[in-house]
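Example 722, ligand magnesium ion.
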Amino acid sequence: MSHPDFSINQLPNQALAGVRRSSYFGDRVFGHHPMLQYLTKDALDAVQSAVVSGSKIDRKIADQVAEGMKTWAIERGATHYTHWFQPLTGATAEKHDAFFDLTPTGQPLERFGGGQLVQQEPDASSFPSGGIRNTFEARGYTAWDPSSPAFIYESTLCIPTIFVSYTGEALDNKAPLLRALNAVDEAATEVARYFDKSVNKVYATLGWEQEYFLVDKALAQTRIDLMSAGRTLIGQASAKGQQLDDHYFGVIHSRVLAFMNDLEIECMHLGIPVKTRHNEVAPNQFELAPVFEEANLAVDHNLLLMDVMEKIADRHQFKVLFHEKPFAGINGSGKHNNWSLSTDTGVNLLSPGSTPMKNLQFLTFFINTIKAVDTYESLLRASISSQSNDQRLGGHEAPPTIFSVFIGDQLSAVLDELEGVSLGKLSPEEKTELKLNVVGKIPEILRDNTDRNRTSPFAFTGNKFEMRGVGAKANCAKPMTALNTAVADQLQCFKKEVDDLIDQKKLKKDEAIFNVLREYIKTSKRIRFEGDGYGQAWIEEAQKRGLTNAKNTPEALEVWATDAVVALFERTKVLSKTELRARHQVELEAYVLHTQIEGRILDELVYTQIIPGTIDYLNVLGNRVMQDQAIYGEGPAKKNMAQELLSTINDHLTQLKAETDQMIEARKKANALSDTSARAHAYAQDIAPRFDRIRLHADKLERYVAEAHWPLTKYRQLLFLK
Ligand code: ADP
Ligand code: MG
């Protein structure tokens, strides 16, 4: 039997290079069309209703689905299947099993039943659980998520799953995301029905923009920091960096273009709707963005994409870097999360319509989102925190560590006008004025709403909000869980307040809505900021406004232990207190481990590469000094050039060694702290800052030591393709 070759390790089928992409889009996904063909009607209905309403699929039906999926996958050359899940390490995990099996009488066959489709028990003891498994003495299992279709990757059928303990606690990033999406669906549907009774479901939508660097693989392999920490811990900026702005949107290098084409062909097969590609600001930095999708699917697609990118990059002799700050002195990489809410009737709730009522709907979701961000700004900050993103946030080119919302002058003016409306019942004139001259004007405003503030961490961009602080490496499930939970809770609150005004104050529905929105505009003002988010003035202003400014991950995560956040997650049924505490532990531990690894790499770089290389050069200089002395004698001519250089280098080398030794001592002290939180704070306050001081001397040495003696590949070589 012949089937399409989809081994990712081989060069792509060149024949596909010019083929219409829509003709093979999703041909490795068990989506609607294959389901129509391979499933019984009962099985198809069951899967569809599980997707829409979360209904359970019984075992007999699961067997039928598994049978269809197996036939489809085997016909396409798949030999194995796996539950594909998102443990708290941040990456995805998989354990492959062959379809191949033997019957009791020794007959070989391919087997895959409902049992294997629905549930699996990976040996999960090595995944972080933050103590959950110890507490409950329970094992973990993975369970099928029918809302994200199975797909064939290389020769394995991958089944997206959640990962939970036997007592039901989430051990992954997907389970809480699904709960948050469910919460926002319920709350937003209720509110959307004020405006349109035919709405039965609301989907959160997500369009991420993935930034990344490409470095020549052979060169990357010479740097242990790039290979083991994903970023350079040492490196003097190259004379030419990004200052000429000649990379941004520039002509894509042919080697990179070949990689991108290959990548896109693979993405098309896998149903990842990639659309945009371009050079980014920094040299060797690029961006890729898809058409937006339902948030759960979009998250899965982003995780899959990152995996595909690594493999395709390898095929093209590149190393792809997702780290948020791989190189000092030039831009880092983020992953903007464009977010909105869409109804099952096809309406984007953050897009104004053509009638005042539709615009009131827009304003409702718009203002409630602002209010949610205001209430939970510190939670949103925590949701984008990670050891690697700490290196980027607050940098001169990256969103600040403080959350604020940018909406533009014109929408600000609309909110200001609404704020001035009198409370309680509206006279017919007031109502007309409001509807025609304030609310009615919104579509016109948005049509030419071109003002955008690139420095804002949370900006309204015409028909969606853009969350810009998310790290390039991050699993978008984390910020999406936080945002959708916050908005869900806010919308629930809004619904109750509006209903109370209608019931108790006998206000009309639109009057009640205006009244509540007006209050929200007033009470969420501090979160709105239209100015320069990168400036020092904003840091001071934000502090006056009482906004959180957590400088590092352990500090940012503290909000997870607060009563308000625990209550929010419990109310919305997204995370129990136990789950939240476990996550907090896991993230703190991850912070320590990543910082510790970087500390050890620095130690190794300094002792096994920089000190030996520098000493080699000092020997050369020392010889020169001795010869100078032999020729010119001691006396005043002693202070010669070689001598000067030698002592400058010697000073930096001495300080480099001293700083490194102190960092090692500080690490030992921190490691001795038994409390995870104390250890994480010690790493953030007493160890991470030392890295910069070590780097300062190392980078100075790189400036002075002869290139022939410098042991590390330079930025100039890493960042520019020949
Ligand atoms: P940029 O920020 O680079 O200027 P855009 O503002 O055009 O680019 O953002 C494009 C991204 O926004 C795309 O990834 C797109 O899929 C996403 N997007 C557009 N509409 C929505 C929506 N309703 N919900 C979520 N994402 C959206
Ligand atoms: Mg963007």
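Summary: The two ends are 44 Å apart (CA to CA).
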